[in-house]
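Here is one chain, start to finish.
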Amino acid sequence: MWTTIASVSLILLFLVVMTRVRSRQREQAWERWATDQGLSYLGPPQGPKIVGSVDQHPLEISTDQQGSDTEGGVAVVRVTLGLNQVPEEMEVVGIPGFVGDLIQGREGTIETGDREFDHDVLLKGPHPQELLAYWTPERRRAILDLVDHSEYDHVSLINSDLVVEFRSIIPGAEDLDQSVLHLREAGSILEESP
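Its structure:
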């Protein structure tokens, strides 16, 4: 009995130590990446968070370690790029797969007539005709490309903030580079004049 209790205690202690080690590794990786990119790193208690601007667009990278699947050092990483020249009061949320089947045709959603976009993306806003004119095939493809990336759990464009979220144990420079690159590519298309 005592050996079982001791074993369980050691395992729990090991998990706590590993979680802290992973957290510190993430903080160090983020701090190096932020410095290399000319951005600001904020450590605990405000962070870990990276803030600054990329191509004159506000950028914020943060984590949320709360949730049902964030045990054992897994972090939900949120990368947000502020955009200019996109319609305000618009809500765009990627909803691929089964959820798209459930949401399709719901009251308050705007349908573009693009079967794939309407299935995988929820579009809402107070001015449907303006939004339909804005969502050209190129812009729809840019959002769908983000939604289709297997590493992203969440994609949205709300109040000019383009956001992707993913889960990782130790999100490093490559993860951050790829996410920012994907947002910059999509953002440049979403901001283009029609």
